Amino acid sequence: MALAANLVIAVAKAVGGVLAGSPALLSEAAHSVADSLNEVFLLAALRRSRRPADTRHPFGYGKERFFWSLLAAVGIFVMGGCFSFFQGAEALSQGTDETFSGYVAGLIVLGVALVAEGVSLLRALHQVRRQGGGLRALSDPALRTVVAEDGTAVLGVTLAIAGMALHMVTGQVAWEASASLAIGVLLVYVAYRLGRDARDQLIGEAADPELSGRICALLRAQPEIDSVEALFTMKMGLDSTLVAARIDLVPGLDSERVEEVAVRIKRSLATTFPEADQIFLDVTDRPSDEAAESPAATGERGGA
Fold this sequence. Notes:
This protein has helices spanning 2-20, 23-49, 64-94, 100-130, 134-138, 141-170, 173-202, 209-220, 255-272, 288-292, 295-298, and strands at 225-237, 240-249, 278-283. The protein is mainly α.
């Protein structure tokens, strides 16, 4: 829906901008073109990230969403922000000649665009609520990008309308050029935030602290685990998290018992935390003198 809306709006803004000679309207056209390209990126991300794991990518393709979201952020910066700065600077240095009919056509196009962008934003917010709302839903990079794009589009169109209306009333092109520059600043900021989030996820972002704390608490509650030496988590996709724990077991367990305990703990983790679909347990080897001072051996956890 966002892609269809952006394509129609981009064409309308471009035609209106050329006919009216409006820098703000042309900036918004570049914004919509960038958004349309980004929607294509995000559709590719949704399709490619669902591919099952294979020998070349044993952990699956979930990070495809993060990669394509990063490209979308770059597209917003280059196609939207930079072009808006160019249009604003050119209007300030050279001025523009707009007719009354051009103003009217431009404002009509922007009014229609505002309605279309608003509908698309409401649809995206509805999707956020369907997926649980809040930060959990916005952890989906595709949905987060669509919400950011639509919210920015509504604000950008509002700035363009204000700039064009003030230009028409005062005859000063500085108002419309300033609106174009403001749109550029807005797009660069949004691109930076989206790019930063995608980069963190792409290079290996840890799971939410709350989830990591619950996983650690479950491990420490197991009677066979003496201590949790280290816990590592990494988001592998939207609903996929890698969990690796270095644990020390209570003294006196034979190899067969250790295997049974490891299988049971991994099954318990997978059942309690469905998003933890890759679980690895590393049993540490303590020297005998350190084992004698462990919580289980000293009676802090009921004795050995």
